[in-house]
Amino acid sequence: MAEHSRPQHQPRERWGSRTGFLFAAIGSAVGLGNIWRFPAVAYENGGGAFLLPYLAALLTAGLPLLILEYSVGRKYRKSPPAAFRALGKPGQFIGWWQVAICFVIATYYAVILAWAIRYVGFSFGQDWGEDPEAFLFGDFLKTAETPGDVSDAFVGGVFWPLLAVWLVVLFVLYLGVRKGIEKANLVFLPMLALFFVVLVVRALTLDGAGTGLDAFFTPDWSALGDGSVWVAAYGQIFFSLSIGFGIMVTYSSYLGRRSDLSGSALVAGFSNSAFEILAGIGVFATLGFLAAESGVGVGEVATDGLGLAFVAFPAVISTMPAGWLFGVLFFGSLVFAGFTSLISIVQVVVASVQDRLRVGRAVAVVTVTGAIGIISLLLFSNDNGLYLLDAADHFINQYGIVLAGLVFVVFVAWWLRRLPQLQQSVNATSAVRLGWWWVACLGVVTPLVLGWMMIDSLLAEFDTNYGDYTTGFLLRYGWSVALGALVVGILISLVPWRSDEELPPTGPGGPGGTADLPEGRRH
Q1: How far apart are CA 23 and CA 6, in angstroms?
Q2: Pick from 245, 191, 166, 260: which is nearest to 27 by CA?
Q3: How many domains is the chain partitioned into structurally?
Q4: CA geometry: angle at 489 spanning 483 and 495, to 5°?
Q5: Which residues cross the membrane (predicted)?
């Protein structure tokens, strides 16, 4: 039998180097939210004072959970569903839940990336004219006047760059972990850093930049007494580190048994935070210039998300010297940040399909990327695409990622009580040893914070409809998406697995493999 027809006997892929893994982990964490979400969250929650709860959240929840995901992935050398099943059979539904979440996120995350690609081109001629908002929603997205169901109104300006995005993702993932994902991140991440550093330096030379930075960094110490500020800090850390939906479990499953986990987590976590602060400096220096040009306060132009990236920044570009270059740098940064994150999201689904169906990478990549890409193109290349994206993003983040992360932590820490065992596994190979604080944070702090985030979000949800959408629209494209991911996870987990004894080895980590031997004793 030909080797390519026996994927179950192929060794599990491995990162080429620790640097390659770190670049991939950092690339996954540094995404669109770092650039357009963190600055506004910090500004609205105490400015400079926000950095204290932000640091507390990083140390007590972000890094501990990141290390936990690293440890599970490396120990079992499998995708989330198979790794959680190895932890405890009921846990496989958590893994498939996270896979479903990644599937949903990938469909619309690629859309924003496609918009950014178009705006790189728009920057040269400043095609948005004098009214960037009207251009975005009217000329470019051709958004319907009211939210509705999926429309047959084709928007070619979104379809073609979106198709290009999926072809690039397909190519990178097809090449594999080492030749595709690792090499792509070794290119995209340095390019992102270069583009963004040049952008920040340019922003700092603009008139009004100092005013913007004062608005961003001036501390409001009274905000520290507001519980919502602390919830916001934990929420930002949770979303920005790519934890809670299987990415880091998947990426760490390609590590060697002797890899330093805690040290890698510290590098990835603090690199992500450093980029967020750098993004805050660049964004608010730019907003200070916009406020000075408009004759208003910084608070009147400070925004986040799509409004910041595709309305406020184009307005800035139109009023500054050599604005086209600033636009290319900014939207180019969004493109690089988006690609590294999107690749990691889709890889979770690919790895899970590989492990579950025992198929080769080529089959899994073409099937998964093709399915996600087709759904993405059908749902978001029409005049209702923006509304569908907004509702799905809000609900899958608030009631998908957070809840799945909470269930995962409770399952490992409280149900299985496996934290001490995983702690020993990490300490055996890591330079920075984990103490009692790691178990305490994951067993107490993280579950309480995530639980409170859920309650706080639900209270706001039931008080006012998100985005002033109708209840019917939110039920169809918001709540149903979040609940659907959970239901899909449960249903897939109910499909019988062949027993572990019947499954062939998956490579170095499988039965009879050499993954537990020191590097020098492998043959």
Answers
A1: 31
A2: 191
A3: 1
A4: 140
A5: 21-39, 51-72, 93-117, 158-177, 184-204, 229-254, 266-291, 324-350, 362-381, 396-416, 436-455, 475-495
- Give per-residue pLDDT as tens, 274-304: 999 999 999 999 999 999 988 888 888 888 7
- The answer to whether residue 516 sits within a structural domain is no
Scored b (16 or more CB within 10 A) or e, 109-127 reads: bbbbbbbbbbbbebbeebe
Residue whose pair of structure tokens reads 């760059």 in the numeric block: 161
Contacts of 98 (CB under 8 A, 6+ apart): 80, 244, 245, 246, 348, 404, 408, 489
Question: Is the pLDDT at 519 greater than 60, yes or no?
Answer: no
369 CB-contact burial (10 Å; exposed 0-12 / middle 13-18 / buried 19+) = buried
- Asked if residue 517 belongs to a domain, the reply is no
What token pair was written down for 245? 């939906």
Identify the H or E element spanning 291: helix 261-294
Range of the domain at 128: 18-511
CATH number of the domain enclosing 488: 1.20.1740
Find tokens 């080429």 and name the residue. 16
Strand partners of residue 382: 154
Q: Is residue 3 part of a domain?
A: no
Residue 34 domain flag: yes
Cα–Cα distance, 179 to 345 (Å, whole number):
18
**pTM to 2 decimal places:** 0.91
| Residue found under tokens 């919502």 | 228
Q: Which of 305, 224, 301, 219 is nearest to 34 (CA)?
A: 305
Q: Which two tokens stand for residue 78?
A: 């499998």
